[in-house]
What we know:
Blueprint: E1 4-5, E2 12-13, H1 15-29, E3 34-42, E4 46-53, E5 58-62, H2 63-75, H3 83-92, H4 100-112
Antiparallel strand pairs: 1-2, 3-4, 4-5
Helix pairs in contact: 1-4, 2-4
Amino acid sequence: MSTLHLEHLRVKVRPQFLLDVYDHAMDGTIDYWLNDTVYEVSRLRGFRADVHETDGTPHTIDATVLVRGMQYMYTYGRGISEAAGIREAIALDDESLLDDRDVDIIVQYGLLGSIIYTPA
């Protein structure tokens, strides 16, 4: 089983876990603040989505963004109520423990460095 080591963490994340989180995000979880224009999953190239915030600001979501968001939950997430559940899902390698808000938080911290948007 191949794993990715999250920088500065003692946690291993399988590429499949990242792909599952990515699929969860692209399944409509984040579409209240992002519009995806190109959504790609390839065994050779990995996964990525070229997206735009509702104001038109472009971004790319890929494994690096998701890892950055997960790292944030470990490093700075103590004051975020969802952080403990996100850390547990990572430690147990079980994406099904993440709800839509958890995935949204991972993506927002990975892309924007903070929570900017909240669902209506």
